[in-house]
Predict the structure.
Amino acid sequence: MTDERFSGLGAYILYAITVAMMIFILAPLLLVMAVSVSDSYFVTFPPQGFTLKWYAKVLQDRDFLEAMRLSILLALGTTVGSLLLGVPAAFALVRGNFPGLAAIKGFLLSPLIFPALVTGLALLQVLSKLGSQDARLNLLIGHVVVTSPYVIRTVVTSLQLVDENLEDAARTLGANRLRTFWRVTLPQIASGVAAGGLFAFMVSFDNYPVTMWLANSEYSPVPLILMRQLVNVFDPSVPAMSTIIILMAMVGVLLLEKLVGLRRALAA
Amino acid sequence: MTTSDDVVALSSVEAQPDARRGSRWRVYLPVGLLAIPMLAFLSYFFFYPAIGLLLSSIQTQNSQGIIGRPFTLAHYARLIHVELYARVLWNTLRISVITSLLATVLAYPVAMVMVKSRPMVTRIITLIVIAPLIVSVVVRGYGWQLILQNGPKGMLNWILMTLHIVDAPLSILYTETAVIIGSLHVFFPMMVLPLASALGKIDPNLEDAARMLGAPWWKVFLRVTLPLSMPGFVAGFTLVFSLTAGSFVIPAILGGASAIMLGNLIEQQIFVVYDWPFGAAIAVVLVGLVFVVNGISMWLLEGRRLRRPV
């Protein structure tokens, strides 16, 4: 088990803390999953028996299904929107040579360091002044503001790795700009674009701090519904709902790992 | 890749032949134009609203709820002078600093193991560290609510009492400690990832050399590893601090009434009290806090003040 570079007391401390942190990270998620199949009318520890009835209850819950539909559609719309804005902007940042480029890059990435809660609040003020009543449209705008910088980051990273000689070769051989982009550039940045899109989807699906300002009673995405249930419902249907969300996230993680590799995607 | 600075410097050289400058513009300008849709979108839906919020924080709201003149700094004064609000500001600062420090201490070992282990171990640790990042914060807060539940039915209390470590159940839920535990769980990956990337860049020969010259493990860490990983630490600390300071869900679920943070206060002021200027002022203070920490971090990282020789 011990690597050559780790030895002695230092190594034991390192491994002990690492294992403890892995347990710390997994414990709440595993507990939620365990309680979701508990055959009791209240959430208790230790869980008792085994039943899938809480899943049956959740899957018949009109509010939850409605929220799920809204969240998925919203996340899809957000993905498309942030790719449409982010991919061209990433091209401009990597390939463009105009004055003020660094400042513009900083501006386009600034929603990442701005507290999302404040982004949502500020947007709510402007949208209500504009009289924009459609919560779905408002949510879409808010989510694209938060997710498009992620697309910039992943696409900029993969664009920097593109071999421009290949593009020159294609152009020399007679391909026009569009064809060169489609056949030579795009395949090389595909994983960055996919990672950006997947990020946009997941961030939108889980977003709370922007969503809480822009949703209304008619259109409430999954995180808001879940928060409401937390306060009002005490049977294991809440853990069942949570487990469904955890499993969906796991699918996302595995996709991301397959597409680009997690470390690379997040380090971008 | 040439940096943008080089290019700007080049194109401003007067001696350059006009013809070349012309062709440069013909080729490059259209690419730059591709940024315009996103620039316009963010200007209108991000920058302009932020300015609007800043403005309303120094204006007054009349009884009809309309915000306008006279300009005033009273809302900021209220945040600082009313003890109830000042305490929330103080809570937020304390929780964010403690969470970031805890995250640092615990992330170093994890990041070191992550960087130096065999590929399979690295992969598993990475997956475990990152996977929860993508699970909704509401779900993670709920998981901690179940673990920390006050009374004998909470998981932690049940374990501690079954093992006879404590006799009476602990009351951790709805305290600042619960908020710190929850925030640590949510933002831990933000510390591990930059640290791991900084540690990965350290030349292992340096550590080997220190060891061969007789330094014990803790001295190797303090004199070689720690100083060389500072950029990762600064980046991670900034991220964890900023995100914790701006959180809403974790204090709402785990903090109850006793550990309210700025985010919760803003929400109350807007949705319950309908006091927009005061809510806006708190938001501006929150942004200011985050900007100050980010500014210091950028100053440290870009000035290369951290990469002095050991």
Notes: Chain A touches chain B through 93 residues (CB under 8 Å). DSSP finds twelve helices and no strands in chain A. The radius of gyration of chain A is 23 Å.
